Amino acid sequence: xxxxxxxxxxxxxxxxxxxxxxxxxxxxxxxxxxxxxxxxxxxxxxxxxxxxxxxxxxxxxxxxxxxxxxxxxxxxxxxxxxxxxxxxxxxxxxxxxxxxxxxxxxxxxxxxxxxxxxxxxxxxxxxxxxxxxxxxxxxxxxxxxx
Amino acid sequence: xxxxxxxxxxxxxxxxxxxxxxxxxxxxxxxxxxxxxxxxxxxxxxxxxxxxxxxxxxxxxxxxxxxxxxxxxxxxxxxxxxxxxxxxxxxxxxxxxxxxx
Lengths: 146, 101
Description:
Distance between the termini of chain B: 57 Å
Largest sheet of chain B: none
Helix content of chain B: over 70%
Order of helices and strands of chain B: HHH
Number of helices of chain A: 5
Oligomer: heterodimer
Largest sheet of chain A: none
Order of helices and strands of chain A: HHHHH
Strand content of chain B: under 5%
Radius of gyration of chain A: 21 Å
């Protein structure tokens, strides 16, 4: 639905729905921390940003012009189906069932212990990346190209 | 009750393909961008499923880092889209042919 709706606002709303469903799947997989993080960061921050930009740009349907050539569209669908068949075939070759895990698997303290212990360097790099993204976004938004 | 790992992987593959098709067929830059987000989330779902399967929580940390990268990418990408819109008054990907050879 995200890619078939013509109105980008509807597209964002369907994306939020799919993210909520995905966070339920994460809870099923035992990742409580990641599930909460998904809803907060994606549903709460990134998609609001998308919605905000769409509202700000005030795009009308007529601006988008006619649809893509049917050749490109059919090519995309064929390509997509082939890719799907391929990946499903690979996935089917693994006959594995998920087993039960410990009670505190994926809980906040456990993930935090990993995050600040084993993965502390990537975690700090993430903060630098976010800083660079903030500066980049501000510069891009303020500068007016001639 | 346990769910086979395949189901998660197949769902993840399906989401990824939806993202790929979205990037190819849509001409709105914002919708293309959202399709990229779908692909990132598909990878995250696969990572979570494998993390559960291997009983190793490193996958959770990776998903966390991927989400941080996605947030940074969304901020910069949307800033670029706004800059493009300021200059060209459009978000139609086909109208941006400045770098076309």
